[in-house]
Amino acid sequence: MGSMLTYFLGNPDDDVVDPKLGLTNKEKRIVRETWAVLRANSVKVGVDIMISYFKRFPQHHRAFPPFKDIPADDLLDNKKFHAHCQGIMSTLNDAIDALDDIDLVDAILHTTGKRHGRRGQGRQEFIDLKGVVMDALRGTFGSKFTTEVEVAWDKAIDALFSKIFEGEDMI
Description:
Elements: H1 2-9, H2 25-39, H3 42-56, H4 58-61, H5 79-97, H6 102-118, H7 123-141, H8 147-167
Helix pairs in contact: 2-5, 2-8, 3-5, 3-7, 5-6, 6-8, 7-8
Pfam families: Globin (PF00042)
GO cellular component, one term: extracellular region
InterPro entries: Erythrocruorin, Globin, Globin-like_sf, Globin/Proto, Mb-like_M
């Protein structure tokens, strides 16, 4: 019965804001539920996002030494690239799963920040990636990518990327 009331009336905790991430409980739930759709085919989604990223920002493609000399379209069948994309998706999976445990989110994403900072990658690369991810979400969900879903993802990406930026003094 409680779940039926929640369905019609909403959860009273939906509007509670996590002070460390800036997301409401409802926004966290939206992010988790929509991410579950992408997670079901994570390698393909990761490959599609990264190829779109490389095409839109060829200067960032060059920052990936194992792939910098391979045209973006040729990466579609490159298993080493698929493995790299799966690693990216796994990190996102872990961070999204941990949205209620900020210390775990910090541990996951600070490591990512350190790794990227050592390679000379900075904030701009992530800022550019955000637009590509948002476009992928729009393309996947179409009309179901409502303003509410977009706001939740916009805030979530900003919160997660801020944790990456804390991991290393990124340029």
